[in-house]
DNA sequence: TAGACGTAGA
DNA sequence: TCTACGTCTA
């Protein structure tokens, strides 16, 4: 039955470098970058029953303002649930996003200043003959802030999370792990 | 993007023996048993624009009478589309199945006496601690007949296909390939 | 049991 | 573009 062994951990993953490329979401699970096969926000429970985010995958399927941005130093990531892009396109009745699950986890990671791994999907649009895509590990980020937005098209609330790359993330991660083993 | 290389061929697959086990649908694609990642009926076009079936996967998600049968010598396989089991459970408005796509392919394979590979999913229900499952390659079959049924629960038509194991399938396949290379 | 930023083929 | 006997986590 279950053929995929997933791992949950906060911070750097041994053997994985910033810029490493993957071609299938399952690979992200196998190497330990992102524990969820399909969901955008990976989570891990804390000892006191709260929840933190381990990683996000920005596949561009939700409305993340920076999905097609050239720079990855700052990411504006849309919360999960009630997918506004598909929902509006398919004329579904959307509800407000809630601060639960992955969205709550990202907020907690901000409050507790936990690092979050960021993986972005890039489309090979530069080469017209290549309709494929790849996932690239962008490194460790901090959740700098979050806010609610009302979308003009759906009239519903979505959460947005601003993530900022940690320039010193390798060093930070090493020290963080020493403290938290 | 596309990470899975699928193969389409009728008949035996080199290196694969009856009874071989697999634990994930993608494996069936990779080894060449079943070209479709998700669909139950694998197809291949003929030179004159018709379509044949290469293989079926009986995962027990449709209503195949023999899904939980002990013997695999005869299979009664439910046609694809308008899934009656899920549809009725979710109270969806179902339509009649149509003789297109994989259903048409299975009919053509019957008319032209083409062999069809059969893969069945088995649940590990004997061991209460193991909630997993596996796919087992059952060998080559012939489509012996097909018919339409009206389901009592949905009131809609489904196609049923009776497949019978070819006892001489290894020999048959060898001879068939000589003729058809 | 339902839902999820999945994948591939028709 | 849409559907499909998927597959995992919550």
Automatic annotation (TrEMBL), chains A, B:
Protein's UniProt keywords contain Nucleus: yes
Subcellular localization(s) per the UniProt record: Chromosome, Centromere; Nucleus
Domain YDG: 11-165
Source taxon at top rank: Eukaryota
Record keywords, A-Z: Nucleus, Signal
Coiled coil residues, start to end: none
Name of this protein: YDG domain-containing protein
Organism, as annotated: Hibiscus sabdariffa (roselle)
């Amino acid at each position: 039955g279950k053929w995929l062994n997933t791992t949950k951990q906060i911070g750097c993953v041994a053997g994985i470098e910033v810029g490493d490329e993957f071609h299938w979401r399952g690979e992200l699970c196998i190497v330990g970058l992102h524990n969820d096969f399909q969901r955008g926000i990976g989570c891990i429970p804390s000892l006191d029953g709260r929840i933190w985010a381990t990683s996000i995958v920005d596949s561009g399927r939700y409305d993340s303002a920076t999905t097609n941005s050239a720079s990855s130093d700052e990411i504006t990531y849309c919360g999960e649930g009630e997918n506004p892009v598909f929902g509006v396109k398919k004329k579904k009745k959307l509800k407000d996003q809630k601060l639960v699950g992955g969205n709550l986890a990202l907020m907690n990671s901000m409050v507790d200043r936990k690092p979050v791994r960021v993986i972005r999907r890039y489309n090979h649009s530069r080469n017209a003959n290549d309709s494929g895509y790849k996932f690239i590990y962008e490194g460790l980020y901090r959740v700098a802030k979050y806010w609610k937005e009302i979308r003009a098209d759906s009239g519903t609330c979505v959460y947005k999370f601003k993530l900022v790359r940690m320039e010193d993330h390798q060093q930070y991660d090493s020290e963080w792990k020493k403290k938290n083993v």
